[in-house]
Amino acid sequence: MSPIRIQRQRTAGWRIEDHVTSPLGAVYVGRPTRFGNPARLIRTDRGPRIQWGGTGTVGGWPANGQSVHGYATELYRTWITRPEQADTLALFRALLHGRDLTCWCPLPAPGQPDHCHAAVLLQLVNEENAS
Known about the structure:
Blueprint: E1 5-7, E2 26-28, E3 39-44, E4 47-52, E5 56-59, H1 68-80, H2 86-96, E6 100-103, H3 117-125
Parallel strand pairs: 1-6, 2-6
Antiparallel strand pairs: 3-4, 4-5
Helix pairs in contact: 2-3
């Protein structure tokens, strides 16, 4: 079975162990971890903006109708696949390959894109041709 993304919840009785499908277990990849997305949605008096890390605002998002969450996810994909991040991505592959990934992002409706950096990580760390 392929690794999956699991949405963490604070619901009474909810346990991660009840949702894990990978025999290797699950890894939390949220913002406070080394795997977290540096692109953060912030609210400003000019509306929602994307902040990169804790240092500055990238700005809004494209006027092509893309959601802010989709934009933040694409920023992550662009960043993690840059040549200067090759060592980081190799480390992430070594640590996450074959494992389910957990975060707080809502799961998409069936047929909808998954705007979560954990979905990007699932794809990248489990690619067949990954070196």
